[in-house]
Amino acid sequence: MRCHQDPISSQRPLPDGRRGASRGRWGRAIHRAAALAIAFAIGAAAAPGAEAPAKKPTRLLLDDFEGDVARRWQNLKPSRAQVKRGKSSGLWTNMTDAVNLKLPHDWSRYEQWLLTVWCYSVKATNARFIVMLASDTAVTEGPDFYYSLVTVDWTGWKQLRIPLREFKGWDHPGGFGHIEAVAFNTSVDWVGTQREPGTVLYFDDLALEAPSE
Ligand SMILES: [Ca+2]
Ligand SMILES: [Ca+2]
Hints:
Blueprint: H1 7-11, H2 23-46, E1 59-63, H3 69-72, E2 73-74, E3 77-79, E4 89-92, E5 98-100, E6 114-121, E7 128-134, E8 145-151, E9 156-163, E10 168-170, E11 181-185, E12 201-209
The chain binds calcium ion (2 copies).
């Protein structure tokens, strides 16, 4: 029994001048190509993760203490003596307020996140400094800010992990949508800061991180 033949393709010359006699070979090649394309498409669609929704970022690096550290930070020097990540950290030797103004200012979407920073302490001096988030408003004449007090009671590397919601507010801070600067501060002694000679700290990888699930 003869197979049904497409009357058009059987009469039309094939690209190499032959007639429908070799249509079978062409047809098979085309079918093979089509089948391969479909299989590839199915394979791609079924590849692990191909259809998974894009992962939400869980970390925002604020400063890696690389490059021109002294340009971004008042009173911190770049150092290679103690480094958590990359090639350098920020050295704080005299506890004079270290301030970084070159950061994103709107943190409103991160209110449930943590501020994290690696900190290497040479000596546990029990000095106290605050991590300060400047957020000034005109409600008060003086500076308004958020703060978290840190006691230098460790040696070596330690990661400070402070939920933003646990920062205390001094006077009338303007909210996390209005963060002007991050500072390591000892001059606002009315919140309990205490300088101690011999306190040497290295900071690395300042970031905002989503709480772990
Ligand atoms: Ca670094
Ligand atoms: Ca003010």
